[in-house]
């Protein structure tokens, strides 16, 4: 279908299924892939492979969501936060950072993080590098490498990109680590269609704007509940993640997300400052991430709503970071490309 005929805003609520089923593990071959219900379970396994135990230090960015700390809490590991600049580039001096068992580099919003400083740190301290690519399924760096495959271990959260009930994945990219990798988990019992999947079917009749207004109202009713951290439940993946996927194909999804990103840029670019100055050709963005002062942010939000789009702040900073976090960790919002 030519790009002009696709209602991209509607695709947020009703993404088009692939013409033929495809497999996620085939896309990431030859890396070994293990499936979970959430990315945080995959991160837990990655830390275990790195040998992280109680009291061990793990380096990770201070600009991070609380959910990413869950595996460290489970293991009793000690988070050491490194700084990021406003462009979300690491401000680390590898020779001056304290030793840690593992270091986590995050491809924020699907944009590739430069791994060279982290690799230098790992060579110096014998730490294992984990590429947290929860946001960047299908995204690549400028040399064409899929994000999540550039370090010995990678973490994915396919549920953030594809309309799945849940889904996380661990990538073991270094064959020498394969023997330490966990056994595959059986799928969780099937749950029947969720309320969200039923609403997705109704989206073509309701249209993107009606969906956005209804969801906005539902979100404010649930605002208090959202503050509570949800317990993560079982690590076993949904059966849909293990079977051939009838979800949007990687090519379609890349086009869809890039088109939405560029649409957001032209719609609200006058009022807001994108976190990243440009959208490289190889990037498949998770969100349109921007910063804005309160008044322009309100203008931007109403422009977005007029098209059936909306943004939310990111991240919910961990308590240990939020009291000392710099301003540029607190003013990021993202326009979502999948509901
Ligand atoms: C950067 C990052 N890493 C890991 C996770 C964990 O992914 P999941 O929510 O699938 O557990 C998230 C989101 O929660 C995240 O934003």
Question: How would you characterize this protein structure?
Answer:
31% of the residues lie in helices and 15% in strands. The protein is of the alpha/beta class and 339 residues long. The chain folds into two domains: 159 residues, Type I PLP-dependent aspartate aminotransferase-like (Major domain) (Aspartate Aminotransferase, domain 2); 142 residues, Aspartate Aminotransferase, domain 1 (Alpha-Beta Complex). It has a seven-stranded mixed beta sheet. Helix 5 links the parallel strand 4 and strand 5. The longest helix has 19 residues. The model has no long low-confidence stretch (mean pLDDT 94). The structure holds pyridoxal-5'-phosphate (PLP). Pyridoxal-5'-phosphate binds next to helix 3.
The SS-based structural class is: alpha/beta
Radius of gyration, taken over Cα atoms and rounded to an integer in Å: 20 Å
Which parts are unreliable, with pLDDT below 50 for 5 consecutive residues or more?
A: none
- Sheet-strand content, in percent, reads 5-15%
- Main sheet: strands, sense, barrel: 7 strands, mixed
| Number of separate domains | 2
Distance N to C terminus: 22 Å
Shape: globular
Which molecules are bound in this entry? pyridoxal-5'-phosphate
Number of helices: 12
Can you give the mean pLDDT? 94
Please identify the top-level CATH class of the largest domain.
Alpha Beta
Per CATH, the architecture of the largest domain is 3-Layer(aba) Sandwich
